Amino acid sequence: MRRSMKLAAVVLSGSLGIASLAACGAKSDSTSGSSSATAGAGASGLKVGMAYDIGGRGDQSFNDSAARGLDKAKNELGATVYEAEAKTGEAETDKEQRLKDLVSSGYNPVIAVGFVYQDAVNKVAKDNPNVKFAIIDSASADQPTNVTSLTFSEEQGSYLAGVAAALKSTAKHVGFIGGVQSELIKKFEAGYVAGVHSVDPNMKVEVTYLTTPPDFSGFTDPGKGKQAAQGQLDKGADVIYSAAGSSGNGAIEAVAGANKWAIGVDSDQAAQPALQKYSARILTSMVKNVDVAVFKYIESVKNGNPITGVKNFDLKEGGVSLATTGGHIDDIKKQLDEAAAKITSGQTKIPTAPQG
Description:
Elements lengths: L3 E2 L1 E2 L2 E2 L3 H9 L2 E3 L6 E5 L6 E5 L10 H16 L2 E5 L7 H13 L5 E4 L4 H10 L5 E4 L10 E6 L1 H15 L4 E8 L2 H17 L4 E8 L10 H13 L4 E5 L3 H11 L3 E6 L15 E7 L1 H13 L7 E4 L6 E4 L9 H13 L11
Parallel strand pairs: 6-7, 6-8, 8-9, 9-10, 10-16, 11-12, 11-13, 13-14, 14-15
Antiparallel strand pairs: 1-17, 2-3, 4-5, 5-7, 15-17
Helix pairs in contact: 2-9, 3-4, 5-6, 5-10, 7-8
């Protein structure tokens, strides 16, 4: 199973159709025609619906991390769970229908994975004030009171990834690949670049984004990721960090093929079955512990004291971490410990948007 280094202080460490399927654990297309869904029955009265971002369960990254939290809730809290998958290029009405289907089938809470759901969550939650909703990676000033935002300090974990990249680069030239040029992914970029430059202010950092909104295919196109990574390798980068969902799998393939260092994201990607063959060249992964946030939220609902408002999971709370699979960063543990301690103490302030 995955090992992760939790860096804190000085420690490196629809309706009837859906309900019927939930009872038998089958798979089906949703009534909107825009997604497929999987149901699983638990032993308690708690019914949790999860609507995935594009890529869904099996992306080896962000959605899989959320899925681990849902699995834990099913196994440890006896929750009945239902998973609804999204498709690339779907309309906003598809997202809304997916959430409505979960609500009409009695799922409460409903968890939306990803900032692309913000408008849909706001609308459906407003129409269903007795249902609790959570959204991952987004918060809006006008969201209803029955919506909880689960956010993360991605810039902090990315800063540490940048420190690791700079310390391991022999070419003094590294890269960053973002899936979609959004405010969220810019947090990854900003932290990473700041971490690199904390080690060497003169080190060159290549930055490539695969798509810009409203095109979100940059999160689900390994071919684009591979091409972008190859471009950065050709320019001389020898450590490349990808924050691009399953597109990052292509980047990892290219980097590993060139015998350089790749840095994964969201999950411990060296431990993911589809990527283990590249594990010798995955330096580390900036793990965003979405599973921790998902489980804590579901647990709070079950206990009758639900997390409300905006709950941020930072480095100190274990919301972000660096994976240690393979032992590739063991030799720089001291430097990473020191960097982590400065972040958690408040001594190091990390930007959340690219500088300059």
